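Need a sequence for this fold. Nothing fancy.
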């Protein structure tokens, strides 16, 4: 098992339900869902967060619990409209380590965002007819893992492990890939929550030599079309705040910036701040597939 593989904790009793994810690789505790007696829930969260590796606690909350969480020292960092079966989800955080709290590139990331917003949106472009855009199958797991291994020096989940990709494909994740002469040159995924009907657009990567082709726009449009087929309209993505390119792609596809998660995870070559973007797919013609040139 990869050292990046975390552990899910679920507590159910007479007063509350709590679903948490212990992410030791990224030194954080994520509260994925909860309901019931908030006082009892916060007691459990506080005890779990005392583990020595925990530097950050992230709580995904509904609107009605925001005030109580803020009164307990949590900071509101981002939100995703429609996250909880149509209701907005809020990401509130608490830090256990001053170095994890401090972000020395925050202003630089603000400047990158300003540049993204000033960029004129581009129209859809036709893909070269020699490229193949398709949904990944289980037989693609090894090729996908090799592709991601060559793109990312560090990634917050074990994307370089073919067994991990196989597990994701067989559960609730759609991988979309773009091939040139049988070789993967770009890929992305939609990690779906079938209960709450949301999906995270993630695992977005393009081979370094192919990054001027605008391929990620087409990949994400195809993923959106797959989500709409499943009546999933809440689409969101969490992008490196230092990446002009990925943030520009999301802006170009009409995603809305919804906040920044400070020192959120280890990615690329270090721990980084991550921007949150969201989109309501019910408000656009998401079923229109990204155009592909006729062969």
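Here you go.
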């Amino acid at each position: 098992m990869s050292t990046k593989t975390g552990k899910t904790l679920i507590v159910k009793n007479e007063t509350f339900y709590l679903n948490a994810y212990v992410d030791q690789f990224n030194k954080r505790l994520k509260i994925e869902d909860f309901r019931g007696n908030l006082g009892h829930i916060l007691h459990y969260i506080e005890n779990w967060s005392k583990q020595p590796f925990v530097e950050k606690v992230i709580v995904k909350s509904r609107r009605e619990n925001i005030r109580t969480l803020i009164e307990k020292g949590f900071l509101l960092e981002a939100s995703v409209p429609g996250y909880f079966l149509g209701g907005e989800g809020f990401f509130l955080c608490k830090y256990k380590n001053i170095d994890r709290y401090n972000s020395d590139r925050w202003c630089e990331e603000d400047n990158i965002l300003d540049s993204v917003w000033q960029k004129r949106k581009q129209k859809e472009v036709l893909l070269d007819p020699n490229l193949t855009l398709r949904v990944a199958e289980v037989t693609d797991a090894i090729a996908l893992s090799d592709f991601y291994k060559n793109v990312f020096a560090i990634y917050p989940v074990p994307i370089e492990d073919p067994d991990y990709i196989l597990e994701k494909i067989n559960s609730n994740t759609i991988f979309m890939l773009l091939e040139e002469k049988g070789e993967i040159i770009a890929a992305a995924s939609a990690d779906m929550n079938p209960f709450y009907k949301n999906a995270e657009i993630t695992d977005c990567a393009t081979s370094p030599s192919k990054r001027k082709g605008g391929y990620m726009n087409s990949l994400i449009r195809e993923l959106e079309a797959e989500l709409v087929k499943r009546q999933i309209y809440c689409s969101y993505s969490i992008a490196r705040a230092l990446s002009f390119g990925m943030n520009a792609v999301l802006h170009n596809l009409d995603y809305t910036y919804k906040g920044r998660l400070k020192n959120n995870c280890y990615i690329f070559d270090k721990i980084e701040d991550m921007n949150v973007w969201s989109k309501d797919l019910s408000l656009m013609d998401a079923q229109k597939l990204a155009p592909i040139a006729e062969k």
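For context: Residues 289-295 have pLDDT under 50 and may be disordered.
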